[in-house]
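Pasting as-is:
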Amino acid sequence: KQLKIIKSIQLNDEIIEGYGAVSLKNGDVYIYGGYNNYGQAANTAKIFDAKKYDFRKEKDMEYILAFIHSSVLLENGNVLILHGFHTDGQIKRNYQVYNPQKDEYYYTKNIPYSTLRGEYRNMILDSGKILLFKGGSYIYDYKTNAFEKTEPQMPMEYFFIPLDKNSYLNLLPSDDYTSGYVYYIKEDKKIPVKNN
């Protein structure tokens, strides 16, 4: 079928790239960060209203996020924002969590792992906790608002694709990235995937 454009809309600001976005439980989209044509990073945020096909301004973030960040929707409807590169060059020791119902931010407890900075991979587990990869593997529990290191450490090297809440596909470098393995978390088992 041919795709049809329902309505063309404008963001009404100068943010051109590097922003993050996540779909909320009600179908709206939360959009944050990025930078403009002058190279200035932003801490602004907005919601795309999927019913009205329009944007509305939301509360600004404390941290300015330029690029290489990610976000994940938690089971309680809040958004965990995993920080990427900051304009001040400092490593932040906690992350922002956005509550779309209240248009408010709160912050996770301090992270004891300096490797958790930029280029994250994440997946939601059966428990509702978030598995993060960056220089190791870590669990975020939104109920306690805290992080813990996994034991044993989960393998994750290159292209990471969640398959379900217990397994993920990890593609390894090759000419066409078609070799790798599927890792099963509960069983702590790797099954090779070969290019036929």
